[in-house]
Amino acid sequence: MGGGMAGNIQKAGYPMIVHDINEGATRAFPENGARLAASPADVASQCDVTFTSLPGPREVEAVASV
Fold it and tell me: Which of 17, 22, 41, 57 is most buried, most CB within 10 Å of its CB?
């Protein structure tokens, strides 16, 4: 789901910084101009707006507390 959303954002021409614990999930995005981040905190430090696609509340809390 997150990959689809990110793909649509990228197709619309917006600059992107992406991160996923599964590195394979982000592999295609740099080929189209996105930058890879080392962690959720790295994404947050470089962005004004962030989108997440996470499995559940526990994961959302873990990312938000970084």
Answer: 17
> Was domain 2-64 assigned CATH 3.40.50.720?
yes
- Residue 65 phi/psi, 5-degree rounding, is -90, 0
Sorted by where each begins, the domain ranges of the chain are: 2-64
The sign of the dihedral angle between the CA atoms of 44, 47, 53, 56 is positive
**For residue 32, which of 9, 10, 5 has the smallest C-alpha distance?**
10
Would you place residue 32 in the very low, low, confident or very high pLDDT band (cuts 50, 70, 90)? confident
pTM of the model: 0.80
pLDDT of amino acid 2: 86
